[in-house]
Amino acid sequence: MSPNLRKRLAVAGVGVPVCALITYAGGFVFVAGLGAAAALGYREFAGMMRGTGTRVLTLPGVVAAFLFPLIVFSGGLEGGGFYAAGLMLGLPALAIAAVDLPERPIRAAACTAFGVFYVGGLLSLGVPLREGGLMSPAGGDANTVRMAGTLLFFFPVVITWLADTAAYLGGRAFGKRPLAPRVSPNKTVAGGVCALLTGLAVAVLYPRFLLAEVWSLDPVRTLAFGLVVAGLAIVGDLAESALKRECGVKDSSGLLPGHGGMLDRLDSVLWALPAAFLFLLLFA
Hints:
The chain is an all-alpha fold. 77% of the residues lie in helices and 3% in strands. It has two domains: 1-124, no CATH class; 141-284, no CATH class. It has helices at residues 3-25, 27-51, 58-98, 105-124, 126-131, 142-174, 189-210, 219-247, 262-266, 269-283; strands at 178-180, 184-188.
């Protein structure tokens, strides 16, 4: 076993149970965990931007990203919308006050806002997926409801993890044609097809064994759910690859040995969680 693989397995062996426990705890513990992940992800984004010579507001962005899930938890989607509007008003004003004109304060505000919305805003849509009672068991006790919310939150996460693994293995075995050569030359069409097929398979099996009492989508919509989540997870992966290529870095940071940074672990999940929530909101 290679040293890098040992590091990856060690980090996953600690990280996966911790994430599961935080999600199961729910409430403030859960949203604080999402907020911490968002803050770390934005900090990495800010570091990459600074590496290109682009000024960003680091500390205000870290705080704003951390607060996004908490605002959505306490005020719902409406509260999140008001918070987003407040950021669009406040960040340019703060940048004008803090950034000299030669350093382009409006561009600094725009990059800061994008980073906050991209990491904190997208991640915060995992809050109603876990806490919104989209598919709560009828008459269940508190522990049953908590478990249902946890399993529903992890549904798109599991699709993402397994689809990403299938894309890697399928690309190595069958890949010849690049999927997006200008962005990520190592990703192949064959790998993308394997990821989508895996998303469909997980969409069928996961609710059958883990959400049997609460899953309400018919087979057609269930397959569509898997396809949408897996497809947007691929886009999220490519989006972060484009960001890193633009910034000239291999990993967003060295925070997680063998895995890169927090953004490297969140890239697909940032798209999968909103995709799952919006799909269920519209069709469940």
